[in-house]
Amino acid sequence: MGGHDPKDRMKLLRTREALLAWRAGLPAGTSVAFVPTMGYLHEGHLSLLREGRRRAGATGQLVLSIFVNPTQFGPGEDLDRYPRDEAGDLAKAASCGVDVAFCPTDGAALYPNGTRTWVEVEGLDRHLCGASRPGHFRGVCTVVAKLWGLVQPSVGLFGEKDYQQLAILRRMHADLNLVGELLGQPIVREPDGLAMSSRNTNLKGTARQEALAISRYLAAVRERFAAGERDSAALLADPSQALAPGRVDYASLVDADELQPVASVAGPVLVAVAAFFGGVRLIDNTLLRP
């Protein structure tokens, strides 16, 4: 006897109007968990969906959005090359118990009148990815604020691999008095240590193996910290050599809350790295707590 196909119970919504109508039809007090993504789902995304399913409970709703947001990509970045697999994503989403998948077919669903209103968090975007990708977090905050207003979740879940993004969105969530909770979830890694990322699929030839230099470098920083080192420069050592043959964008040690560079470790700090391997930009991080 055939089993029930979970895709049969998952609603696929394409338009802003359809999502608004769905949300308006929910009984008052329904728990709604939300995981916004750009698709090409991997185990990191699926861990967020499973946690969202747990938090929504048996009577709640789990919402996934898949939208490659053009406003967070700068000129010359990989908007056109960003991997996409909607059919595969929807099958994975259904297996995690997603109730609603919001998958706009074009930008008009979220930017119906173009883009004149932006959401920006000052200060937290000055360093790390914000320094090398100007405007990136403005695009991220704007699209997440739009989605949050449509879904009105009880809880939204984001991965800690994008730690700066998480910190910025937490501040936006608090400053704008948005509904619900915004929670971070731990980094999910491949068995060999590489942080899971949709962009990993673009690593060709030797670049995939070379990219392991990032997780090895972060492990070395943690070892120096565990041995008692507290000076930032000594902890970071020589990232250009450690990450070779990758091209380093940044390797920084910053305060874990405000993301400002620190000279030495006195409280919780973030070690954050961005580097290019085979033309693919990868990020990773680790937290150090005295």
Report on this model:
The protein is α/β, with parallel strands linked by helices and 290 residues long. The chain folds into 2 domains: 6-185, Rossmann fold (3-Layer(aba) Sandwich); 198-288, Pantoate-beta-alanine ligase, C-terminal domain (Pantoate--beta-alanine Ligase, Chain: A,domain 2, 2-Layer Sandwich). The chain is built from 10 helices and 9 strands. It has helices spanning 16-24, 43-56, 86-95, 129-132, 136-151, 163-175, 207-210, 213-226, 232-236, 239-242; strands spanning 11-13, 32-37, 61-66, 100-102, 155-159, 181-185, 247-255, 269-277, 280-288. It has a 6-stranded parallel β-sheet, with helices on both faces. Helix 5 packs across helix 6 (163-175). It is globular.
List the defining traits of the structure above:
290 residues, alpha/beta, Rossmann fold, Pantoate--beta-alanine Ligase, Chain: A,domain 2, 2 domains, six-stranded parallel β-sheet, three-stranded antiparallel β-sheet, 9 strands, 32% helix, globular
Biggest β-sheet description: 6 strands, parallel
Q: What is the class of the largest domain in the CATH system?
A: Alpha Beta
CATH-level-4 superfamily name of the largest domain: HUPs
Mean pLDDT: 96
How many individual helices? 10
Tell me the overall shape.
globular
- Bin the strand percentage: 15-25%
| Residues in helices, as a percent range | 25-40%
Cα end-to-end separation: 57 Å
Structural class: alpha/beta
CATH topology of the largest domain: Rossmann fold
Q: How many discrete domains?
A: 2
Q: Reading side by side through the largest sheet, how are the strands ordered? A: 1-4-3-2-5-6
